[in-house]
TrEMBL record:
Keywords: Hydrolase, Metal-binding, Metalloprotease, Protease, Zinc. The lineage of its organism: Eukaryota, Metazoa, Spiralia, Lophotrochozoa, Mollusca. This is Neutral metalloproteinase. It comes from the Eukaryota. Residues 45-186 form the Peptidase M4 domain. GO terms for molecular function: metal ion binding; metalloendopeptidase activity. The keyword Protease applies.
Length: 440
């Protein structure tokens, strides 16, 4: 999947909670969607999808005079009429009861799929990561070009070809999330789309597709493949996470890398690491993706190398309170020497007299902080919003193993000159609890 790099793009980020109950792609257990919009989607490989029933709701707002628009909180869909024009702005509108008819190249309904999957992808970021992926509403331009076996992000909007001999129209859930992933990268780390940083750029988009497949309820869950649902060959995918080499050109280790290798193929180094985090290290997929997303938003730079990028993912897991050793183990076979990543430098510091708010703690999330005890009396509190129990361990190591003091919601400890201390928070709660941490 192609990405057209746009430089010097300055976009502000926005985090916003969606409250519009009219716009929903949730699967309703019974009855017709409300508001109702008819539509079809799918292709011969995935099967036909009927929107407006069976709980598959197109995210339209209230119809006007029986007509619906393909515009939601997150996206708007434009029909490009198989031209290469990039200036079209007219949003698709259609008779709500009849649906929009645009069967093409074997697919039963291209625009409806794009609309549904695009909205699902926007919801993923707000509902799982409290993050608005883009501060603007991008166009999803369908029917781009003629016999066009590709999709791309141009720095502002997403474009989807109808495929040709190799692909059905390129509007599968993972491909749409892949292109939006390029939007996230272009407004955050701005990874240059060449060399090692380009491989990380492309991998982040591939990984985004897996999170979206899981969130969107793909039958069978995410498949750890790129583009399987739109490849006309019944057994082929565009790229593979478990064994990147299965496409006969991608790589999975740094030793296979060479200057000039296409970024789509060098992406295998990070793709297989993500697979190992989830499938071998048993990390929750949303948590694993959260580490990559955090790295993209806060840690990667435009020229990050594979090693620096991997260390940043490990740091991101640490910052988020996840088991960073799972990320390190997942990257170990890649040959990036991640065992030399300086773990102690990953810690977030809390100073005496200061407070950290909205620290997330649960059974799978145990954040660790370095304590700056200068001027401290040796008392640390952790108060959950719902007043649930939070365990605090004061340790002398960043992995939280050598415990010197422990308590529930509050702990006192000895302050010694020259001794670096860390605080590890944990909870029996299955879901994340928001905790306020104060050091005195």
């Amino acid at each position: 999947l192609e990405f057209n790099q746009v430089t010097n793009l300055t976009i502000s980020r926005e985090v916003r909670q969606v409250t519009d109950e009219c716009e929903t792609t949730s699967r309703r257990p019974e009855g017709q969607c409300s508001p109702y919009a008819n539509g079809v989607g799918g292709n011969p490989k995935t099967g036909r999808r009927q929107y407006g029933s069976d709980g598959l709701c197109l995210p339209v707002s209230e119809p006007e005079n029986g007509r619906c628009k393909m515009e939601s909180t997150y996206v708007k869909v434009v029909d490009n009429g198989n031209t290469n024009d990039r200036s079209r702005q007219r949003i698709i509108d259609f008779n709500c009861n009849e649906g929009f008819s645009d069967a093409k190249n074997g697919a039963y309904g291209v625009a409806s799929d794009a609309f549904y999957y695009g909205h699902i992808t926007g919801r993923l970021y707000e509902e799982k990561y409290n993050y608005r992926a883009l501060s603007w509403k991008p166009r999803m331009v369908v029917h781009y070009g003629s016999c066009y076996d590709n999709a791309f992000w141009d720095g502002r909007d997403m474009y989807f070809g109808d495929g040709c001999n190799t692909f059905y129209p390129l509007v599968s859930q993972d491909v749409i999330a892949h292109e939006l992933g390029h939007g996230i990268t272009s407004t955050n780390s701005r990874l240059v789309y060449s060399s090692e940083s380009g491989g990380i750029n492309e991998a982040f988009s591939d990984i985004s597709g897996e999170a979206a497949e899981l969130f969107g309820g793909r039958p069978g869950g995410n498949d750890f493949n790129v583009g399987f649902d739109l490849f006309k060959n019944p057994s082929r995918s565009l790229r593979y996470f478990r064994r990147p080499e299965d496409d006969n050109i991608s790589i999975s280790t740094y030793g296979q890398y060479r200057d000039g290798l296409n970024v789509h193929y060098s992406s295998g180094i990070f793709n297989i690491a993500f697979y190992r985090m989830v499938a071998e290290q048993n990390m929750d997929l949303y948590q694993a993706y959260g580490c990559f997303l955090h790295a993209n938003r806060n840690l990667w730079t435009s020229r990050s190398t594979f090693k620096a990028g991997a260390c940043a993912v490990i740091k991101a897991c640490f910052d988020l309170g996840y088991d960073h050793n799972k990320a390190r183990e997942a990257f170990m076979p890649s040959g990036l020497e991640v065992e030399t990543c300086n773990v102690q430098s990953l810690s977030v510091q809390i100073s005496a007299g200061t407070t950290q708010e909205r620290v997330m703690v649960s059974t799978g999330r145990s954040p660790i902080f370095e304590l700056d005890v200068t001027g401290a009396t040796g008392r640390l509190t952790a108060e959950a919003e719902d007043f649930s129990m939070v365990t605090i361990d004061i340790t002398t190591d960043v992995d939280g193993q050598n415990v010197v003091a422990s308590g529930e919601n509050e702990v006192t400890f000895s302050v010694q000159s020259g001794v670096t201390l860390f605080a590890k928070l944990s909870s029996d709660a299955e879901t994340d609890k928001s905790v306020t941490v104060t050091l005195n």
